[in-house]
Fold:
Amino acid sequence: MRISEEYPDPARSDAGFVVSGEWAAGSADRLVATADAVIAARRSVPWPEGLLAYSLFIDADGDLLRDYAQWTDEGAAGRQPRGDHIAYRLYRGSRSAASTPPGAMVAVRVDTDDDALARTWVDAVFEALDQDTALPAGGLGAFFHVSTDGRHVLNYAEWVSADAHRKALAATGRGISSGPLWDKVQTMPGVRHQSVTRYHLHRTLTA
Structure:
């Protein structure tokens, strides 16, 4: 298998299924050592059939780890233990025309009442961003995944840096947009905002 420091491409067309989870390393001081151990454990076993890429991220502000595994399909991923990880399919995404590579990934998590509402909320996010003519600088892409049970949304957001995202939030005071439709995104009934976490890539493994 190949190990690199290249961010995964959430838009790749052959990735029909994503499994991702988040857990605490215990302390920020242990982040890198814990991440190294996770990667070493992955490299010590045969590469699973159907796994396209396995990426591990470390918290830019705290003690969390998040992995992001791209699979060809649900059947391939179903043979692997998931624990408290969540299975997703990419619903909708976009990327800016800039050729700047990402320097951070921001994981935005919301829970919803059902699949239809999850997709309605994601569509509302895109509508709000499309209407905002003063978006803060630094955002490169946003890729919204809906869980297979329809009750969780994960936005894998690409940014030039973690600091650019911090500045964007400070500038608007209510997320990355201050446009006229953003209130609908923030207050939609049945949508529960869970977390926004900035990450740096630790390593990516590919076959």
Summary: Strands lie at 2-4, 17-24, 51-59, 64-71, 86-95, 104-112, 139-147, 152-159, 191-206. The first helix runs from residue 31 to 43. The longest strand covers residues 191-206. Helices lie at 31-43, 74-77, 115-131, 162-172, 182-187.
